[in-house]
Amino acid sequence: MGEIRLHGRGGQGTVMAAEMLANAFVRQGKYASVFPSFGIERRGSAVQAFVRYGDQPIREKTKIYRPEMLLALDPTLLDKKDTYEGFKTGGVIVAAAKDHARILAMGVKPSIIGLVDGMEIAYRETGTNITNVVMLGALAKVTGLIGLGDVTPAVEENFSGELLRKNLIVLKRGHDEAKVIKFDTQAGDDDAVSLFEIKKTSCLEPKTAVFESSWSDCTNKVQIIKTGEWRFKRPVTNKDDCRRCGLCALYCPVGCVTERPSGHYLQDYAYCKGCGVCAFECPAGAIDMVLEEE
Amino acid sequence: MDVKVLSGNKAAAHGVRLARPDVIAMYPITPQTPLAEELAKFHAEGLIDAEIIEVEGEHTAMSAITGAAVAGGRVFTATSSWGLSYMNEPFMFCAGNRVPAVMVNVTRETSSLRGVGGSRQDIMTARDGGWIQIEPETCQEVLDSVLIAYRLSEDPRVLLPVVVAYDGFFLSHQYERVEVPDQATVDKFLAPVSARIRSKLDDPRTLHFSISLAGMDFANYRKMALEAMEGAKAIHGEVEDEFAALFGRRYGMIDTYRADDAEIIYLTAGSCSGTIRTIVDRARNRGHKIGLARLRVFRPYPREEMARVLEGKKAVAVIERSICLGWNCGHLFQEARAVLPDVTNPPKMVDFIDGLSSLDITADHLEKALAITMAAADGQTVKETNWLIWE
């Protein structure tokens, strides 16, 4: 059985990519399963999906903790430790990125890295950051596990009309433009430990006590999420054009735009999700949405 | 037959489609929503010829299908968590009146802090509602169980509603290879109950629905319900035999894996059973006599069969996704423990709580549970109830 872990951001079609991948495997006569992670299911938040495939029915119903293959749909995730958690030595990484130095800098030892500038292709062909179909094309080229002939019907099942036409273009571009970089790394034996043979008579207890009721003082216990990292485009206010009317602050759905001493209204990038509502509403057209990577 | 990649929710929708229901009444709720959407889509595409009632809540959904079933229809509803709580009154009423109905409960937490996470807490709080309760392990089994549910529920010897309760997220949103049977074979499987004599609204003799009974008459009626539930065990076997003859799959009330000669078994229900099967194989390869018993039909509880399964075992690792407050354990443990007087040499039983609020029951957790249970089998002292969650 093979295990592939997909990393993307909410809205990039990570789970749909996983489904199409499973469809492609089943079309080959194999068994496959797909399971998405469930965090905060919002546009821009980090999302994972887990694909298993094999010649026998897939029995596991868990997340994938020791993947031999990673498919990264978003370049901003490549600098995060979580992306590589449990990655097996000698495995394969296929990423929407331009260079592989940043991947190796994270301390992983793959045997193959496949790269394609997924963001550029998606943005140019579809005007979005939805890289899922691009990356399926790249995966097909880099691993050879599935052919474009297996993926194409899965893409056709999910899209129609103009969207289908564009997705078939990005599928082919992802495939044709993917670069394959090989390393002299042998597969490691990561599954050697049998945990049922360890000496153990009790389970660990939780480390910190949470508040005993939700109506007690829980000031220090609430979880604050830095939603700023969900963003792929940031609003940039041109202070010369800004009329200091504050409409952007009024419309901001997360309330992250505040008045500054200069009288300008500016976004707090720690929380701004990059939704673009402020740019849309600004009567002076003073706010531009700029791609994060640039 | 058609091979598709389907989630548990979509597999359930195909099961419902193939059963040709007359009335569907649903209110969407996480993680059941994709099932409601898929059925609405089938309806819009003309793939099901059912009346879909868009209700304002689950209380009405259950009331509507109960009424439709009494009027002779084949019915369906589906919910989760608070939805199941909200329909509790007509849920009891439906079973109490011996109304044949089929529903899906996509299991989820039912306790506060507003969690939408999966667990088995919701269905376990409804375990005494009088419904037959089936708990699948795979998406294929979700589809199959919906079909079996109709056959069982509408059998004149049973006449009890059936709930197919599958794990929220871990099955409802898990996509797998599923064999979708063809309509003709399903029609053949359901033919005995499809041809049953149904009540009709225009028959004045059946207008006394919701008749009031008191005292000994009431007690007599309850005794009959109890006996119908007991009788459903044998009828479930008959139905499964016919299902296997047509579709080639048989699950049992307790589905065992390498358990016959095992010294230690896992006891669990639902989706984590698959992960356990792989661990059983790994442990067997290392020379340990390990097996699995998966409780598939929780109501009626297969007491006699459970006693046979537990006989001769040294220890049992119970893995569960719900907690029984006031018993300091989970529900599977509590009920299996009640069978021990029927076992000649009762095994040591160790309970493991895991997978609450959509937490993963990981292979590592399950292997550690086995390590602790092996220690218990060797006579070492271990706690009766253990929480794997922080491992």
Describe the structure.
The complex is a heterodimer of chains A (294) and B (391). Chain A is an alpha/beta fold and 294 residues long. Chain A is built from 8 helices and 11 strands. The model of chain A has no long low-confidence stretch (mean pLDDT 91). Chain B is of the alpha/beta class. Helices cover 41% and strands 19% of the residues of chain B. The longest helix of chain B is centred in the middle third of the chain and has 33 residues. The relative contact order of chain B is 0.11. Classes of the chains: A alpha/beta (294), B alpha/beta (391). Strand 2 of chain A pairs antiparallel with strand 8 of chain B, so a sheet runs across the interface.
Any key phrases for this structure?
heterodimer, A: alpha/beta, 7-stranded mixed β-sheet, 11 strands, 26% helix, B: 391 residues, 6-stranded mixed β-sheet, 41% helix, globular
Short description:
Chain A has 294 residues and is α/β, with parallel strands linked by helices.
What is the number of beta strands of chain A? Answer: 11
- SSE sequence of chain B, one letter per element: EHEHEHEHHEHEHEEHHEEHEEHEHEHE
Number of helices of chain A: 8
The whole-angstrom Rg of chain B is 21 Å
Q: How widely separated are the two ends of chain B?
A: 43 Å
Rg over alpha carbons of chain A? 22 Å
Strands across the major sheet of chain A, in which order? 2-3-1-4-5-6-7
Mean pLDDT of chain A: 91
Q: How many beta-strand elements of chain B?
A: 15
Give helix % range of chain B.
40-55%
Assign the structural class of chain A, choosing from mainly alpha, mainly beta, alpha/beta, alpha+beta, or little secondary structure.
Answer: alpha/beta
